[in-house]
Amino acid sequence: MKKPITFHYIAAILSAFLALIPAKAAAEGAVLQDTASSGGITASTDLKLQVSTMPEAKAGITQSFTFPFLQGEGPLTQDNNIRLSVTAEATPISLNAIGEALWTPVAFLQVAGGGRLGSGWNINLFGKEIYGIGINHRGEDMGDGKHHREVISGEPFDSLMWRLYGGLALQFDLAAIIPGDWNHILFRAYNEGRYNVYNRAANGEPWVFENDQGRNRNGWTWYGAYVLGYQMPLSPVLDTIAFMVETDKNFYNNPKGAGWGDDLTRWIFSMLFNFTITPRFGLVLAIQVRTLNNYGTSDLENREGIYYQDLELSDKYGKQRLAFYRTALIMSYKLR
Hints:
By secondary structure, the chain is mainly beta. The chain has helices at 7-18, 22-28, and strands spanning 42-52, 56-68, 81-91, 94-106, 109-120, 123-125, 128-130, 133-141, 148-153, 161-173, 185-198, 207-209, 219-231, 238-250, 266-276, 281-293, 320-334. The chain has a single domain, classed as monomeric porin ompg (Porin, Beta Barrel). Mean pLDDT is 86; it is low at 1-9 and 22-38.
């Protein structure tokens, strides 16, 4: 199977990163994200296009409504709101619909909840199979009596993948305490619980979605995103730079999963650059490295065709290593 094209992580970069900068963006007219005002409900429509060096691509449109809610007069509560959004996404191998509610009860806290529904199809690109959705099976013996071939079975739109999630974010801007254009040091920590289901998969059966590694199973996972950034006071285009750490961990509770690394936390480290080109058009550039599992030699992770549950983590080389992941570009345009 072709190595992972994980479309969903690019979207996570955008949502976590841009959540840091609405106040400065609004102040400068760089409307990358609406914020509620005491005047009433605001609405926005945004287009997004995400591409990377994997290669991969995703296009989406989001309609959002922001409602003032429990607003106060002080700086911590004057912008309290609830933001409701619906998103339609398309990739070359999948379609998705996403709904989310984001509540800001106080300036430094956000509570998120939502759901995702998607399906897909498989394509052959330059002789490589790209899997939108399907079950990951153990196939025939590869001749060594130990490893088996990985077989993905799935038909276009044969079933649905759905996810329910809830998360909590803490965020901070130093300039809120020490005012000044040079004092916008930003921090955001977001933790999210996810319940993922592919309707066609039996209990404990692994599945693939959007050409990931095919190691998903129905059940709970945890995702975290932690961002430390700085807003540039004088740059006319480069608005914000940041360092982001993402974590992802399964809670499938497979007693044999530790042997192939099911219990390991996966990490992605990103340098992020936000560019405000016009008040409506913005870019985020992400340069990323990630952890990969080691299975005896430094290149076994990249050998195609081996069923992952036949692999064993290395004691000699360490269970994980750090490797370049991708460079991603996320373009956003505000229609209104």
